[in-house]
Amino acid sequence: MAQAFPYTYYACDCFDSNTTTSTKRASQMLAAADEEDSTFDPQSSRSNYALYPLEHLLYCEDCQQIRCPRCIIEETLNWYCPNCLFEVPSSVVKSDGNRCTRNCFQCPVCISPLIVNVLDTPDTSSATPDRHILACPYCHWSTIETGIEFEKHTGVYGQLARIANGGRPIPTPKERDKEREKRKELEARQQDSRNPLSPSTNSSATAVGDYEPPSRDEVFSNLAAFYKCQIEAQKPPNLFASGEFNFSSPSAHSRIMNLYSTTTAKKQKRAKPATMREAASELEGLTIHDPASDNAAIERIKRDGWSSTLSPTQKLAQTNPHVHFEAELRPIPTLLCTKRSKRCRSCRHILSKPESKITSTRYKIKLLALNHIPRLSIRALPPTNVPSSVPPTPGSSSSSQQQPFSYHAIRSGVPTHFLLHLSNPLFDPIRVTLATSSTTPGKVQSRVTILCPQFDVGANTDVWDDALSASPAPPSRNRGATINAETGLIEAGKVWDKGRNWTSVVVEVVPGFLQDIGSFGGEGKRAEEEGLNDDDDLLEIPIFVRLEFEADVHADERGLGDSRGSKGEKERREEAFWTVVGAGRIKELEDAKNKPKKKHAGDTGKDESQADPDARPKKRGKTTEYAEDTEAKNPGNYLAKLGGPIAMEIPADLLEKIHLYNAMLQLGLPKFVQLPLIDTLVLQMYKTNLSACHLDTLEITIGRFYSRGVAILDPVLNHLIGTYYFHSLADCTHPEPTRKETTTQDDDAGRTDFTTTKRKYLGFADHSANRQAF
Amino acid sequence: MSGQPAPARPAPDRRSSTVPKRTSLLPKPSSIVLDSSVLIAQHAQLTGTHPITIGPNTVLHPHTKLSSALAPVVLGEGCVVFERAKIGIGMGAEPDAESRQSSRASSRNSASTRDSMRSEGTVLAKNVVVESNAIVEAAEVGEGTVIEVGAVLGRGCIIGKYCTISASSIIPPNTRLPDYTVVFSGSQQRIDKTLQLRPEILDAKVTVHAKQLDMFKKLIPNNIAKWA
């Protein structure tokens, strides 16, 4: 979705209410019910039609529901011409069509409005009538180019209807009818008096050479007259026949009805009604394609060039879309615009009704969702400073200040905080409950946590009420109150900030990784690199919002009489809807593509983590502003403080730990960053039987290590070297991945010749050693 | 006499006779040939080293910029140049002095390598109207052409007679437009006009143009003394 971040869409659940339940089978209904319970998935194709920004939604007060543009019925109030702003009554629209019939035309070339101009005559005497033309002020096209000039500057539509391009007059329908009748009689007489032996000659007045193919209007009028005749011929003479006649063919139904309609006494032979035939001659509207006209068109293109032809847009905008050349262009009458009122589809309550006056843009009735549904908006929360004992020096903090938050480049794996802001348009305070699934649906799974899922939002009272109220308004809450002073964490369960009619809470998001990086080698398969679709890297969070509030029962009858009815009665109301909050786009990790062994911060399984808070490194001197941490996450599982540059989970699998260690070595990360990893890695190495795969990996690590010339006092390697001796023979000899049967093998079995294996240097270990239990 | 820079930030009333006027850093045109009937308004700016020739009855509105830094500029008879229009090669680029030098150097290089049949320069024929904010770097603009607001004519263009370049159109360099062309809707479309068919409309336009010139002469105070 090409929207500016961050955005909020609201889901209208009308898509499943259109079909009546009777058409669904039971199994489908169950499935639908399941769907409703599950999380709203913004990536599904159906949700494309259900999500709208709040400004697009209306609200039905009777149904107490959001109405989206798809569950709304529109009715036109009035038609008007956008050019002359003249209101056209609907009866005239039905008869004359949906175009302006006064003086409003659009240029056929550039669709800008045409202006009536007067051609100056050199002599100012009024002997010659004024010639008017239509001219376009933008592209300078005018009707001179097609040879049309007319006399008056009003009633242009009527004048144009009588003049064809080139100045020839167009006959009116009456004239055309008369003409047609005359020609029919002429032809009939000709046929009667035709001599079968003499060749047929056209004895009409016009010579053959002047014959022109009939224009589109002529053909249309001929055809219309012909069909009218046919329909009349089909009509049964008696009055009792069924009105439902199928004109095209004498169907069995109509025949039978014919039989039964007459009294059985009369046994008149009913003649089969003649089938309707199609037009057979030119007078009836038949046009036979003449290849000569095509040749003429081709010659014309050769002569006048490509620029004399029309573009498809220009052609389609014309009344006759089968024109090809510029000389056949006609001014386009302006299409009428409408003013419409909108109704709720289910209860027919009017939701939006504009004023009848054309020039006013106001609305008589305007039930917007903006006035009934709280507005949810999200923005990134800038990181705040921990109130530490050491105040950050200006130089250091500015140097480590991150760039302004970019919504298009959210980093994967880094917990990011967003501020969710709800503003309440109602006149009653509401209690809001937010819910979202722990991971976003879709390919990229980001973890979302709303730190304060339930909170109150104040009523949208007047500003003055608040100011003049007796109780002093609470000062705007210090934002630092939500941050625990000691640990610098954002406290869950508390709102971030609160105002007169709005509240904001913090949402923590750990964006997922775009490419599901499979572990290397061990499982033997690469993660399917299907490639991400266009919008898969969007961070969209579906949030379910539930409001509870107490509203006046008879709110709509306020003002009718205070004593009447129960004025102060409040009823408890509840509303719920899904929203999708678009928080940004996740940026791809650059280094994730190149290295074969990748960093893997698994989303899975943090259960076996060794929860030692001591593993967290001490606060680094320079980055003092990343002090936010949540209690929800297990801190020991992280390499560094959350919010720092490296904050990732230590993976559970030993192999992945080794990978990570390897990568850190290669990157040359400082030791304190590696410390927690080293601790857990060594611990795990104690506990597991190292398989060949692990050994391979560790060996490569050694190789990398030594290639960098780093000191050998590395705890991991020390441990490896020290305990290598104790590893089972089977492991050492078989470089394949771990097989299931290794545990059952006896150590003495299968003495191998190490020179043939990968591990030639293990020649010393040709005696087996018992696996020591640790 | 020194030319003062046209973008004068202080209001005119701030200038007092005791404070010396800032001398312009821009090079003065080597020769400005003005007819006596030319109307040059208050803050018009004529700069550059090549000669500038302005024909009779021409009107230069305030804040117009004629630059002959790279090539001479010739305005024909009856031309009207509206406010903030820029005429001359090199005006299309950033009008800073530094980049003008660089563009001058680059254009010199390109000029040496380019062989053009026409001599360099910008020539506006008679009765050309250049509206506000237009940038005319064209080699030649034909008679009676109207260049509307914000149009950009690239270098080396040759525009025919009685053309209309509609607002905000961009004409790429070295294009050739035949007579009576209308460029509209961006730079893409061109269409020939009804002027071809009805010369009386042409005549009407010419008379209207003459009346316009008269009006300008009455309304705009002439600052020609500075340049003559």
TrEMBL record, chain A:
- GO CC aspect terms: dynactin complex; stress fiber
Q: Which UniProt keywords apply?
A: Acetylation, Coiled coil, Cytoplasm, Cytoskeleton, Isopeptide bond, Phosphoprotein, Ubl conjugation
Biased composition range(s): Basic and acidic residues: 173-192, 601-616
Q: Which intervals carry biased composition (Polar residues)?
A: 193-206
Q: What is its main location?
A: cytoplasm
Localisation per UniProt entry: Cytoplasm, Cytoskeleton, Microtubule organizing center, Centrosome; Cytoplasm, Cytoskeleton, Stress fiber; Cytoplasm, Myofibril
Q: Which InterPro entries match?
A: DCTN4
**Annotated region Disordered: where?**
164-213, 381-403, 589-634
For this protein, the record's Pfam families field holds: Dynactin_p62
> Is-annotated flag, keyword Ubl conjugation?
yes
Instruction: Write out the similarity annotation.
Output: Belongs to the dynactin subunit 4 family.
Q: Its quaternary structure?
A: Subunit of dynactin, a multiprotein complex part of a tripartite complex with dynein and a adapter, such as BICDL1, BICD2 or HOOK3. The dynactin complex is built around ACTR1A/ACTB filament and consists of an actin-related filament composed of a shoulder domain, a pointed end and a barbed end. Its length is defined by its flexible shoulder domain. The soulder is composed of 2 DCTN1 subunits, 4 DCTN2 and 2 DCTN3. The 4 DCNT2 (via N-terminus) bind the ACTR1A filament and act as molecular rulers to determine the length. The pointed end is important for binding dynein-dynactin cargo adapters.
Q: How is this protein named in the record?
A: Dynactin subunit 4
The organism's taxonomy opens as: Eukaryota, Fungi, Dikarya, Ascomycota, Pezizomycotina
Automatic annotation (TrEMBL), chain B:
Q: Which organism is it from?
A: Clathrospora elynae
Gene3D superfamilies, A to Z? Hexapeptide repeat proteins
One term under GO cellular component: dynactin complex
Q: Which domain of life is it from?
A: Eukaryota
Cell location:
Cytoplasm, Cytoskeleton
The molecule here is called Dynactin subunit 6
Q: Which UniProt keywords apply?
A: Cytoplasm, Cytoskeleton
Role: Part of the dynactin complex that activates the molecular motor dynein for ultra-processive transport along microtubules.
Could you state one GO biological process linked to this protein? mitotic spindle organization
Principal location class: cytoplasm
| GO MF | dynein complex binding
InterPro entries assigned to the protein according to its UniProt record, in alphabetical order: DCTN6 (IPR027777), Trimer_LpxA-like_sf (IPR011004)
Q: Which family is annotated?
A: Belongs to the dynactin subunits 5/6 family. Dynactin subunit 6 subfamily.
Q: Where is this region: Disordered?
A: 1-27, 93-119
Where composition is biased (Low complexity), the residues are 100-114
Tagged with keyword Cytoplasm: yes
